[in-house]
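hey so i finally got around to running the thing on that chain from the lab meeting. sorry it took forever, my laptop kept dying and i had to restart like 3 times. anyway pasting the input first so we r on the same page abt which one it is
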Amino acid sequence: MKFAAVQRTAGWGMAALGDRVGDILGYARVSTGDQDIAGQTLRLEAAGAIKVFSDVRSGKSMERPGLAALLAYARKGDTLAIVRLDRLGRSLSELLTTVAMLKERGIALHSLEEKIDTSSAAGELVFHVFGAIAHFERRLISERTRDGVAAAKAKGKRPGRQPLDQAKVDAAMTLIRASTSPAQAARQLGLGRSTVYREMKRLGVSRSE
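ok and heres what got predicted. didnt touch it at all, straight out
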């Protein structure tokens, strides 16, 4: 049975996700075209989704036309269903922002694997805890950064990339011109391979065969 073909009716999917008004709309995402999105779609349909929207996009991509289409289609009282939380957000902060937007619009979120349903008190509490953890993590990172900068200044060091040892760079270029591989030259002189390749490009040095 193709759930996407069913007309929207209030209360559809109540047996799967609880007694609430509105439809269940599924969202599936895979990172590449090589992955099969059918498995997520089947699980969402089995959970009562009358329509499944999908994206084949990396989690780093800001553009998600499938998710945008779902949000344009959804109405107050609907539920957005996903297989896992990582299908919806690239990070905890982005996920929490999305959930806050859904809540403002009166749309619930249900994650099958994590068994989180924001229409319930327990599910909403989980996201409050996530929000507190995210805030705590941001504060820790900020404090560690400040502590690191202060410690570096106390030792007379400036934070950031250390100055390049030009003598080592010159020695590396000499070795490479003498048929030493860039990787071996970098290893012998204690330089990063990316640094050696960057300096080769800057100085116009090519590896001798």
